Amino acid sequence: MQRQQKPLASGIMRWMLLGVVLVALATGLQKSFDSGFGVCGADVNVPPQARAALKPFVKQHKFEYLYATIGTLWQVHQTGQLPDCYLDKNAARAKGWRP
Asked: What contacts 7, CB < 8 A, 6 or more positions away?
């Protein structure tokens, strides 16, 4: 029984796709991933200098959503309030959350 060979174009396309994903991750497109998943805090407008200052702290503590965490920290720093997308316990319970 002889194995079928995959077309060369298929292999090239896989490598190209992998390359695009790696470039996207390496160039800091994390914010679009955070926003794409509807992560609260990702859409907070953070000045570039503040983002650069907060990024090492957030990375050091290994938060899952880099830019959402930076946005939340910035919002709390500026206003003393969490972003509007955060729910309090009563609102979360009304939506079915149970501790």
From this structure: none
Q: What dihedral do alpha carbons 51, 62, 97, 43 form, nearest 10°?
A: 20
User: Do 66 and 28 meet the contact criterion of CB atoms below 8 Å apart?
Assistant: no
Measured between alpha carbons, how far is 61 from 68 in angstroms, rounded to an integer?
A: 14
Which tokens hold the place of 82? 């969490």
Q: Are 72 and 40 in contact (CB under 8 A)?
A: yes
Asked whether the beta carbons of 69 and 58 are under 8 A apart, the reply is yes
| Number of neighbours of residue 70 by Cβ within 10 angstroms | 27
Locus of tokens 């959350």:
97
Whole-model pTM over 0.70: no
pLDDT digits (tens, 9 = 90+) for 21-67: 555 444 444 555 565 567 888 889 999 999 999 999 999 999 988 98
Residue 4 DSSP code = P
